[in-house]
């Protein structure tokens, strides 16, 4: 029999950005909160020797152990899904802080169009613009309704930036100024302006200056060391849960973190959650943690998997397009890139930061006319100087041998003499893209793995070709010696790294028939269960998701407090 612990007000499954934000907000309001984290405890001191590219970037020190739990993948229902045995397309974080520790820090707001995508697409182009198998839907909330929560997240994290000239209206400016403009960033900005585009500095969770947030948390400015993505920040300059929200929750005395705690089931009686069942990874002991309110705050795949394994919600059925749990899985389209090789110029691109760069949204969302285009939405186009670490960066022109003297010479020649402009494309959901439980493969505890059914569509190929040409226009304006552009998008391949921006599966909306959670991320079917994270996204935009995830987390915290105060019921 599992060991049963005393009941708490709230139990969180996962302590990354969403879990940290909820812990901070709920404990400040007086609730007792337990955070269950299946990885280990972390603190800033753990990253004092973090500048080890081999250990962290290529051997995935901060990532989940795929030998114990992974995902399975298939491109369509006619083929057998196979497990992802080594890291490729995306990275699954592990430990306190989750992916919020090893992210780059690029913190965008989704566009107003994103939240009402179906309505606005039909209003401008007609219903026939949406392919029959594309399952886009409005999110049940507008940008204007979510804007105060964006502002709250940005002030907590100290986001450094400047106003997006083509973005939604802001209630206040960013709390800190944008990052420094390097020579190559200036080249991108000047080239974009010559093409009558609207560049702005990437909104950055790497602090441009020392900052103290509204909770009194003080952090130091970024040192531009170039070790952000896949690494923790030894300065605390990169906003992450460990240095921002988690300390605030701990200070209240009402938050307990239990690391090495792997949640296997959500316990429930009828349509009410009663707690969770987890395993102490260090001992193998099974433990029940009762709670008045249960909140799933883990990564997309685990949020969906726990609901399916716990028989909560209505599993999605692609055959008849019914159910909601697992519906509208989406990835990101990252193939539109143009590279300029400069024979007579050298730049200090070995220095950088995860969010150092400039970007533009002239071809994102519905900021441009799609009438004669065979796709909807678009991409944020950016040049980012994230730091050219020595192992993973050796761009050479096509035709260069893959090894030997000529390869080495070209690698050295162009190491600091290339500029890459890339499109981060939106990914629309389709009826046959979804998540479910794999019928064959299981994890170390004997539980089924999550299965991904996904492939790129004609929508994605058309978007890639169009956006790659726009990237090429900008690179050519910089006058390089040689330009090479990747315009073709083949079938989705889970082998090479592309993006960790997975979304969907527990999507939000205004209609319980087509969504799993409401605008507070409260489950329609289980009123005391909230599911927080990018799993709520009904599609994926042309941006990094964290800013929108953070805003939704703050709204969910407000919803939980309203729910608690009202004594129950579905929030409206």
TrEMBL record:
- Select a single GO molecular function from the record's annotations and give it: flavin adenine dinucleotide binding
InterPro entries named in the record: FAD/NAD-bd_sf, GMC_OxRdtase_N, GMC_OxRtase_C
Q: Where is the signal peptide?
A: none
Q: Where is the Glucose-methanol-choline oxidoreductase N-terminal domain?
A: 142-330
Q: What is its EC number?
A: 1.1.99.3
- Broad EC category: oxidoreductase
Q: Which UniProt keywords apply?
A: FAD, Flavoprotein, Oxidoreductase
Every Glucose-methanol-choline oxidoreductase C-terminal domain range: 435-553
Q: Which family does it belong to?
A: Belongs to the GMC oxidoreductase family.
The entry's protein name is: Gluconate 2-dehydrogenase alpha chain
Origin species, per record, is Brevibacillus fulvus
Upper taxonomic lineage: Bacteria, Bacillati, Bacillota, Bacilli, Bacillales
């Amino acid at each position: 029999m599992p060991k049963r612990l005393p009941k708490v007000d709230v139990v969180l499954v996962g302590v990354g950005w969403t879990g940290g934000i909820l812990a901070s907000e709920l404990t400040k309001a007086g609730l007792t909160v337990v955070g269950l984290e299946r990885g280990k405890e972390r603190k800033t001191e753990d990253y004092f020797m973090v500048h080890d590219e081999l250990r962290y970037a290529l051997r995935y020190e901060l990532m989940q152990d795929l030998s114990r739990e992974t995902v399975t993948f298939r491109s369509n229902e006619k083929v057998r899904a196979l497990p992802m045995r080594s890291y490729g397309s995306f990275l699954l974080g592990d430990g306190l802080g989750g992916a919020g520790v090893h992210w780059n820090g690029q913190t965008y707001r989704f566009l107003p169009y994103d939240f009402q995508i179906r309505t606005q697409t039909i209003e401008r182009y007609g219903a026939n613009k949406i392919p029959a198998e594309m399952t886009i839907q409005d999110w049940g909330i507008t940008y204007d309704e979510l804007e105060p929560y964006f502002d709250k997240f940005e002030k907590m994290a100290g986001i450094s930036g400047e106003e997006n000239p083509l973005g939604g209206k802001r209630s206040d400016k960013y709390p800190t100024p944008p990052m420094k403009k390097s020579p190559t960033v200036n080249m991108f900005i000047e080239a974009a302006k010559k093409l009558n585009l609207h560049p702005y500095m990437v909104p950055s969770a790497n602090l441009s200056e020392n900052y103290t947030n509204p909770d009194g948390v003080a952090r130091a400015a970024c040192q531009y060391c170039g070790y952000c993505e896949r690494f923790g920040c030894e300065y605390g300059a990169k906003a992450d849960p460990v240095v921002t929200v988690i300390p605030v929750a701990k200070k209240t005395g009402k938050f307990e973190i239990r690391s090495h705690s792997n949640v296997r089931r959500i316990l429930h009686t009828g349509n009410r959650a009663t707690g969770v069942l987890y395993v102490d990874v260090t001992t193998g002991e099974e433990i029940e943690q009762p709670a008045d309110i249960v909140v799933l705050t883990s990564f997309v795949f685990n949020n969906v998997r726990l609901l399916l394994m716990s028989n909560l919600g209505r599993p999605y059925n692609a055959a008849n397009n019914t159910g909601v749990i697992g519906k509208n899985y989406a990835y990101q389209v990252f193939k539109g890139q143009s590279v300029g090789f400069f024979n007579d110029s050298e730049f200090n691109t070995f220095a950088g930061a995860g969010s150092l760069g400039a970007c533009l949204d002239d071809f994102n969302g519905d900021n441009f006319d799609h009438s004669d285009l065979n796709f909807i939405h678009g991409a944020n186009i950016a040049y980012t100087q994230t730091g050219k670490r020595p192992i993973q960066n050796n761009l050479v022109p096509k035709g260069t041998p893959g090894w030997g003297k000529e390869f080495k010479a070209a690698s050295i020649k162009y190491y600091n003499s290339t500029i890459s402009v890339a499109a981060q494309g939106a990914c629309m959901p389709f009826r046959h893209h979804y998540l479910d439980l794999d019928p064959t493969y299981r994890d170390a505890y004997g539980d089924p793995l999550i299965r991904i059914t996904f492939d790129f569509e004609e929508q994605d190929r058309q978007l890639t070709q169009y956006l790659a040409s726009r990237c090429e226009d900008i690179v050519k304006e910089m006058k390089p010696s040689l330009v090479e552009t990747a315009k073709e998008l083949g079938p989705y391949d889970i082998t090479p790294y592309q993006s960790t921006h997975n979304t969907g599966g527990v999507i939000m909306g205004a209609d319980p028939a087509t969504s799993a959670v409401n605008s507070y991320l409260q489950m329609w079917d289980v009123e005391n269960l909230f599911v927080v994270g990018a799993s709520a996204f009904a599609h994926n935009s042309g941006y990094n998701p964290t800013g929108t995830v953070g805003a939704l987390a703050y709204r969910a915290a407000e919803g939980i407090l309203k729910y608690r105060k009202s004594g129950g019921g579905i929030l409206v």
